[in-house]
Amino acid sequence: MERITFKNEAGLSLAGHFYAAPSKSIVIMTHGFLSNKSSSGRFDRFALKLQQNGYNVLTYDCGGYGESDDTAIHFDKQVTDLKAAKEYSHTRGMERFAYWGHSLGGRLSLTCYDKDIETMVLTGPVTGAISYQHVDDFSKEQVAQCECNGSMVFYVDDPWRSEIVLDKQMLDDFDYMDQAATLQSVHCPILVIHGTEGDLERELAQITKKAAHLFPTGTKLVELDGADHSFMNQLDEIEILGLHWLHDHFSVR
């Protein structure tokens, strides 16, 4: 694994880990809300397994997260970050692309679809609008701070930073999403994995199911019984499902 940095269009330095393999196929992994390139160890594990199977892998911190430069986060900024990660992959000689996203990283993957993205693996993805109150337990004081100052501070248990600054725009970003336009713009098969436990994961699964007819041909929805939004007790299953999916839809070249 190589520690790397690259710039987004705003000139911010983004930190990442590049797992090199002898191919020109890469899986770009995008973390969720208030997380980082490790994704609580999930991405570290999956990236190593994918590398062992011949895939290059890039994990990265969106701006304002992990080791990347500070900025108040909102969705459009993170869109530019994923696009920058893909451009960086081009500079490393990559020619074939797949996305792997968790939670909000799933929405980012869908939003950043391009014609050279061959497939996606999405775990607990945000595939439509969801009230921000359901995403995290925002206190009244935090929301008031956000309304007054245009941002709020989250204190996080992260090896690289103690706080993440949330732009007020992010609250609206959760509440408003054109689900039909987003999904109908994607034209590659997707493996969508949801769990059955926890209010957040159940709601996200219902949002996905209601839009099942909008997903591209070849998409598969898997529900893991007993899994909550973290999927921490189902990592073996996700690793197997994801690897088999990539073997079938994203051959190593």
TrEMBL record:
<dbReference type="GO" id="GO:0016020">
    <property type="term" value="C:membrane"/>
</dbReference>
<dbReference type="Pfam" id="PF12146">
    <property type="entry name" value="Hydrolase_4"/>
</dbReference>
<dbReference type="InterPro" id="IPR022742">
    <property type="entry name" value="Hydrolase_4"/>
</dbReference>
<protein>
    <submittedName>
        <fullName>Alpha/beta hydrolase</fullName>
    </submittedName>
</protein>
<dbReference type="InterPro" id="IPR050266">
    <property type="entry name" value="AB_hydrolase_sf"/>
</dbReference>
<dbReference type="InterPro" id="IPR029058">
    <property type="entry name" value="AB_hydrolase_fold"/>
</dbReference>
<keyword id="KW-0378">Hydrolase</keyword>
<dbReference type="GO" id="GO:0016787">
    <property type="term" value="F:hydrolase activity"/>
</dbReference>
<feature type="domain" description="Serine aminopeptidase S33">
    <location>
        <begin position="22"/>
        <end position="233"/>
    </location>
</feature>
